[in-house]
Amino acid sequence: MAEKKVKKEKIPRQPMPEQEPDVRRRNFNEVPLGYSKELAMKEAERCIQCKKPTCISGCPVSIDIPAFIKLIKEGEFTKSIRKLWEKNGLPAVCGRVCPQEDQCEGVCVLAKKGEPVAIGNLERFVADLEREHGTGELPPKAKPTGKRVAVVGSGPSGLTVAGDLTLKGHDVTIFEAFHKPGGVLVYGIPEFRLPKEIVFSEVNFLERLGAKLECNAVVGRIVSIDELFEQGYDAVYVGVGAGLPRFMNIPGENLIGIYSANEYLTRSNLMKAYLFPEYDTPIAKGKNVAVFGAGNVAMDSARTAMRLGADVVRIVYRRSREEMPARAAEIHHAEEEGIEFYLLTAPTKFIGDENGRVTGMECLKMELGEPDESGRRRPVPIKGSEFQLECDLAVIAVGAGANPLLTQSTEGLELNRWGYVIADPETGKTTKKGVWAGGDIVTGSATVILAMGAGRAASDSIHQYLTWGW
Amino acid sequence: MFEILKRQEMADGTVVLNEISAPLIAKKAKPGQFVILKANETGERIPLTMAEADPKKGIITIIYQIVGKSTALFKSLQVGDKFQDVIGPLGKPTHLEKIGTVVCVGGGTGVAVMHPITRGLKEVGNNVIAIIGARTKDLLILEDKMTAASHELHVCTDDGSYGHHGFVTDVLKEVLEKEDVKLVVGIGPVPMMKFVCKVTEQFKVKTLVSLNSIMVDGTGMCGCCRVSVGGKTQFACVDGPEFDGHEVDFEELMQRLQAYTAEEAAAYGKYKGECKLA
To answer: Which residues pair with A429 in a beta bridge?
Structure first.
């Protein structure tokens, strides 16, 4: 018998330490606890440093992933964060909320035979280490160009544009409609998935770099885009997000206790209603909660309802598990926390009591038919399958549309038939001179990292325009 | 920014007027538009329709009734204190055009919102009849200003302590019987607006109302303020706050305004307790 080659023992993917499901489902603290230095270095060792890395092409902002991981392996954490910053201004955010399984980790060579390198966890580790123990030293900045840029919206795409252009020496002002910066990172994503302190720290970093921030500034109301040009801005970036809640248009939808996910999450996250009455904004605390939709926003809503003390939280979705658009990790976390899934189920109407408060709904069971234009199999109602479900709180998380407040008040800015801004996918240039756009107001609801990718493309184009005039 | 430059208690201390430094908002504000105010870090976002905006001085005026913790907190702010956040101008301005005789009906603190609209309707050349009301004489506000803003002013009190003894709708009916009225604007408590619309419906006179739904962002982002108008869901913050009163589902609006009654009572009770201790 031939002697087996002595193989180097394979290091398994290092699991992320997490709060236990039974504990975390009743608190708002962050679920994953982060890698220790030892865990991170061990995980970094798993990266085989491919000569032709596929992970980079899987990243919408093309981070040099093998390079930053190699620096972690060598214990060069400061160098590693600098490597990340070259391409990504918000690594602590992306390490937490990117759908890595569909991007970098999805195309990692190790994923073919086993588990991919935990790229997201490593990105988060090195960003957190810098924030908590770093020197706070700023990256080098180009000489002032004297050009002024207005960035409308302080979500992921706006922050990316602001960071890039500030580093290139332009004078950037960010306008935010809410009283706090961060956009969807603050009003949409819950504390237990992305602590707000991290977002504010990233914004603070931009301010230290020299970007200015104006909160409470609803562009389109307090100032128009044309007025920004009159005030001396040379370019404007529109990154206002989607920001129009979609309802299901079924009877009873205006009963008390029925929220859009935007409202429910904004109350809890931005207004900190989960700390009521310490904070003044109230939020309904349902015992029997139904959440419609199966994307990340639906998971966030369901897990928030559980943390606010619900007995039962159900995700009600008209397609099957396979079509659920949420990140795998979010679905897994929701299940661990006891969220129930009512799949192939569609509500047809809400039922209320004499005070106008929701008490339940009527539903239909569905089956999957032929694929529709989205490529997913179309749900078809099963005749005679009506049934009732009780609920005292309902959250509608079936997507968002384009908020018209700014776009429709801006002359020369062309929109498509759904109201999204028409912008060149390569450069973010709109039909209006000097105006760029990116993120959800161009693409419709997508991810943080795609918005950042659009911001990166636009900032390159804006820089070119400010430098060369085209 | 957002410093309180003037503070005045009205209606026996149940209503407060604040003049706030907000130059950018004052420059853009038009009658009928509102702002959202937040007193401090832990505060709630409260929408209030502006009672005045002076672009030259850079000042906006709000007049609000103390109904719960947030407005009590606003009341506690003194001259020199600041609102942490003021956002606006929000909502669609009132459409002001010359159409003939117009009746402006204001009840309670709704009179404060009614005032700039009344003045605006007069300035564009309408014959403006105003009717204002309150529960009792001491709660009546802005009588002088409404006299100046209109051609004819009627005052009503529910208890008869001043002016006409009865409701604004009684006087409205009399006016509609006598005059060829082209438009009625009604702003006040929801039941008042509902009954104004009931009266004007009989006379088939177009009626605008300004709705005070519960809001969060005020930019059409959350849908909290949704109201049924003509069987369709509209957002008071961006589609309004003014709507055709004959199309508004007032019952639904009144119910939706009760969404947080229990929470509001608890918060207000706790706040009053803390104030006593302090």
So the answer is: A436
Question: In sequence order, which residues have a C-beta less than 8 Å from that of residue A457 and are 6 or more positions away?
Answer: A425, A426, A427, A428, A438
Task: Give the residue on B whose Cα is nearest the Cα of A180.
Answer: B85
Q: Closest partner residue to B223 among A215, A247, A277, by Cβ?
A: A247
Partnered with residue A347 across adjacent β-strands are A363
Nearest to B198 by CA among B152, B238, B250, B271: B250
Region B191-219: what's the mean pLDDT? Answer: 96
Calculate how close chain B gets to A227, using CA atoms only, in Å: 12
The size of chain A, in residues, is 470
For the segment A10-28, the average pLDDT, to the nearest whole number, is 94
- Please count the residues of chain B: 278
Of A375, A379, A351, A352, the closest CA to residue A365 belongs to A379
Does A277 reach chain B within 8 Å, measured CB to CB? yes
Residue of A nearest to B43 (CA): A280
Confidence of residue A61 (pLDDT cuts 50, 70, 90): confident
Question: Which SS3 state, helix, strand or coil, does residue A67 take?
Answer: helix
A281 near B CB under 8 A: yes
DSSP helix/strand/coil, B267: helix
Average pLDDT taken over every residue of chain A: 93
CB A366 within 8 A of CB A380: yes
Q: Per-residue pLDDT tens for A242-259?
A: 889 999 999 999 999 999
Residue that is written with structure tokens 């079509």 in the block: A323
Distance between CA atoms of residues A168 and A174, nearest Å: 16
Note the pTM of the prediction, 2 decimals: 0.94
For residue B151, the cross-strand partners are none
User: Residue A178: which of B90, B217, B223 has the nearest Cβ?
Assistant: B217
Give the pLDDT mean for B223-230. Answer: 96
If you compute the radius of gyration of chain A from its CA atoms, what whole number of angstroms results?
23
Give the DSSP H/E element, type plus range, for residue A172: strand A171-175
Interface of A with B in 16-45 (CB under 8 A): none
User: Which residues have a Cβ under 8 Å from the Cβ of A86 and sit 6 or more positions away?
Assistant: A63, A64
Residues A65/A58, Cβ–Cβ less than 8 Å? no
CA distance linking residue B116 with residue B187, whole number of Å: 12
* DSSP strands (E only) in A123-169: 148-152
Backbone φ and ψ of B190, nearest 5°: -55, -45
Question: Is A105 in contact with A118 (CB distance < 8 Å)?
Answer: yes
Give residue-wise pLDDT tens across range A391-446.
Answer: 999 999 999 999 999 998 899 999 999 999 999 999 999 999 999 999 999 999 88
The interface pTM score, or ipTM, of the predicted complex is 0.95
Beta strands B232-235 and B226-229 are antiparallel
**Residues A177, B252: C-beta atoms closer than 8 Å:** no
